Structure formats: C-alpha cells, structure tokens
Description:
The complex is a heterodimer of chains A (274) and B (239). Chain A is mainly alpha-helical. Chain A has helices spanning 2-37, 44-58, 63-87, 94-133, 135-141, 146-181, 189-199, 202-228, 236-270. The two termini of chain A are 38 Å apart. In chain B, 30% of the residues lie in helices and 23% in strands. Chain B is globular, with a radius of gyration of 17 Å. With 239 residues, chain B is an alpha/beta fold. Chain B has helices at 48-55, 78-85, 103-113, 122-133, 148-161, 178-192, 208-211, and strands spanning 9-16, 25-32, 36-41, 63-68, 71-72, 88-91, 166-170, 200-204, 217-222, 225-228, 235-236. Chain B contains seven helices and eleven strands. The interface between A and B is medium-sized, with 24 and 27 residues.
Amino acid sequence: MFILDLADNIGNRIGSVVRYTLQTWTMVYVSFRSVIINRKHNSFREIFKVISTQIYFTGFQALPLISMLALIAGTLIIIQSSSQLSKVGGGDMLGNLVVVLIIRELGPLMTALVVIARSGTAIASELGNMKVNGEIDALESMGINPLSYIVFPRLLGGIISVVCLALYFCIVALFGGYFIGQFVQPISFSFYIDSIAYAISSADVWLFLLKNLFSGGMIFIICCYQGLLVKQSFTEVPQVTTKAVVNSIMYTVGFNSLVSLSVYLQNLRQLGLI
Amino acid sequence: MRRERITDIEIKNLSLKFDIGAPLFNDVNLKFPLGKIIVLEGQPGCGKSIFLRMLAGLVEPTQGDVIYNGRSLREMSFEQFAPLRTSTSICFENGGLLMNKSLIENIKLPLLYNQQWRAERGGIYLDKLISNFNIKDFLDHRPAAVSAGVRKIAGLVRSLVCTPQVLFFDEPNLGIGENAVEALKHCIDEYRSEGKQDELIVMACSDRRFIERFDCERIQIKDSKLIFENQNSIEIGAA
Lengths: 274, 239
C-alpha cells in the first residue's frame, strides 16, 4: 500500500508539473502569436514603451545591487582560488577556475536570484493587482490583448535584462574582483588577463547564453502566469507572489543544475573517467 | 485597427450562474435596438454591471450566446472580435484606469494603441471633453493620486473620446459631482443629436432622477429576469 501511495503521489506531482508547464507555455505561445499575427493591428510603439520600461526597472535599476554582489563574489573567488591553487602549485589554473565559477555558474545563478527577488515579485503582484482592479478587463474592452500588451513586453524586456545583467555581473566580478583582490593577494595583471583569455571557450559562451535565456524566460513566464491567476481578491496577491518566487527559483536552479551536471558528466566521459 | 460597424446585438438563451447563490440570469433573450438609450435598473447586486460586462464580451455567460452581427462571441477569438470591440466602449463603475499610467496616458491609450488618433476627431474632441469635464489640472497625475470621482470622470472621457458606436456605461453619474453630470448629459445629448441612427447606449443606473432626463427604454432586472417597461420597442424572446 505504501508503495502504491508513493507512486500515486509521484504521479500526481509529475502530472501537475507537466500541466503547469503546458499552461505557462500556452500563455507564451498565445502572447507571441497575438503580437506577430496581429502586427498590423498592434501598436508596436506602445508595446515598445512597455518593453523599455521593463528593461529600465529590471535591468538598469538592478545595477547597484548586481555591482555589489559581483564585486564581493569576484573578490572572494579570485582571492580564495589564487591562494588555494598556489598551495598545490596550480597557480596556472586560476583563469580556468575563475571562468568556470563566475561565467558558467555564479553569474547566471546570482543574476536570476536577484531578478526573481526584485522583478519577479513586482510583476506577479502588479499583474495580480491589475486583475483585481479590473485593469485587465479595461484593456480587453479597449481591444487591447492583455497578453500582447502586458505579458509579451515583460517577457521580452525581462529576457534582455537578465542576459545583460549576467554579462555585467561577469565583467564586474572578473575585473572588479581582481582590482579589489590586489589589496590582499597581488597577482600580475598580464598573467590574470592571459589566464582568463586562455580559459574562455565557445562552450562557456553557449552555456552562459543558454542558462540566462532560460532563466530570464522562465522567471517572467512564471511570474506573469501566477499574477494572472488572481481572480477576485487582493488577499490572493501575496499568495500568488510567493508561489511565483518559489516556482521561479525551482525552475531556474533546477535547470542550471541540470545543465551543469550534464556538461561535467560529458567532460568526465571525454576524459575517459566514466 | 479598422473598426467594423455593428448592425445588431442580440442575446440568446443567456444564463449566468456563479458557484454560490441563485442564478443571476436565466434563459434571457433580447435584441437591442440601435439608435436608442437602454437603461438597466434594479437593486444593488441584481446583476446590472455583470450584464453590461457580458454584453461587452468581458464575462462569458454560463449558457447561451451574446451575438454581434450574427456571430456568437463564443465562436470568435480575441482578434476576430477586436474590430467589433473597437466600435464599442465601456465606462466601468470604478473608472477602470491603469494605475501605472497618468490620466492623460490612460485616456489616449485606446486611440494610440488602435492607431485611431488621426482617424478620429482625436485631439480637438479630447480637448473639448477635458474642458467640459474640467479635469485639466489632474491629467498628469496617476489614478492613485486623485479622488475616485476624478478617476471615474477620466474613465468616462476615455470611453467617449473614441467616439464609439455602442457605449456601455456602468453607473456613469455616481460620485462625479453635479458639473460632471451636466457635462455627461450634454455629451450624450450631443452624441444623440448628430443624426446617426445606429448608435446605442446601454447604461446601468440606479439614479431615477438621472434616467428621467433621457428619452430611453428602461429594463428592470429582478429575480434573474428582465422586466421591460415598454415592450413594443424592444424585441424580446423568452425573457
């Protein structure tokens, strides 16, 4: 009986995850379709205004926080890596370690978490409040499809912002971290630059883009979807906001981990270790 | 967006029921005559606003159809209904403004988005409405920074500025002050005196004094049914 119950629970959980994913992607499909198919009817100028506002709020306004986190993370990684590697005579590997940690792992993950905390919550609660206030009905009554006017620009603006913020995070972490680290652990700048340039490969660029595009997409899809799930009451808004944050973190961290794991398994296979 | 002229609006076998409570409407049939003002009356909670929203295609009935130009709203996608929808306009009871835009941005939004700014009387008519309703001082404010009455007036101006063929008003005179009520009356009279025969105004209103100022057809909503004061002027089914 226990095994049957367990199987039942697992089946239900998988079913609900699949259903949730399908519903969110249906929303995305309809929002893109309504923008692309009705390009003659939609005012791109109005949609572009919403995209630029979204980039301003999600991307530009997050720069101070991202700068601070990137500086701290970059400094710590460079100091720790340099000191630990020099103990075992692996100082030449500094660039490889820093690139893997910052570009492949920390950059996408920390950017995603900052964006979820700042913009994901804001979007879920904003859309929830819009629903309760009747603003979504008002848009429909004016012949404006809420999916093309609200969801599409937030999604596009959000993805652009996440990719740019992650790139900014990596640059600040790599260079800002180096300059601050100089006070504690002096390293030659030419050695550091050569080491980084030698370590960066096209795989790093692809992984960086893959992780950030997916994270950006999923954060804004989930938060828009949760916000639009509100029906009648303001008391539903904090509930959907919490759920939006939890689901965004689960999808983002889960995907990032899955990608990293598959890349390292492939590396091990290439080395003949598995 | 190119507007499509509305030739008839009809509701067939329309029923609406929520999860809790008795049905709000039960098997209602009605053909709306163009060129008239229809007023929906009834006690608070009888379903006037939701009836307007169903007519505007914002609420889907439990059963039955709302039919525009012979086409059921159930069978039309958002995009298919859009040309007809832009021939209509609704003023919500609370104004229905977007909170992250200023009043003027809210008012201009339907014209700009549907690319009707040049096609319509646009700026001149907007200036006239703003002046008539006396909201010039509040145009750059966001809805949260002004009173409920000003929000409602901005909602009225937004619905009027598109010069729609069919206007839905939800308690249009509630809480807007005497001067704005006069301006609204003036706008409706002007709208009606332009000699067009296919305009329709459907108004949910519980203020008898305001209703009596118009030459209108009155429908009472009571016990899930529509009760007509003058049955000759409206085509009724099994209401």
